[in-house]
Amino acid sequence: MNSEKRYDLEDRLIEFAIKI
């Protein structure tokens, strides 16, 4: 269950890095 929350954070981080 906690894994899903961590995945969301990583996904947001990846999207942020791509935007930069």
Structure characteristics:
90% helix, 1 helix, mainly alpha, 20 residues, rod-shaped
* Share in helix: over 70%
Average pLDDT score: 83
How many strands, what sense, and barrel or not for the largest sheet? none
Helix-strand sequence: H
Distance between the termini: 30 Å
Overall body shape: rod-shaped
- Spans of at least 5 consecutive residues with low confidence: none
Radius of gyration, in Å, reads 9 Å
Our count of helices gives 1
Structural class: mainly alpha
Overall number of strands: 0
Give the percentage of residues in beta strands: under 5%
Question: How does this model look, in words?
Answer:
There is one protein chain. The chain has 20 residues and is mostly helical. It has one helix at residues 2-19.
Architecture blueprint of SSEs:
Blueprint: H1 2-19
Question: Brief description of this entry?
Answer:
This protein has 20 residues and is mostly helical. Helices cover 90% and strands 0% of the residues.
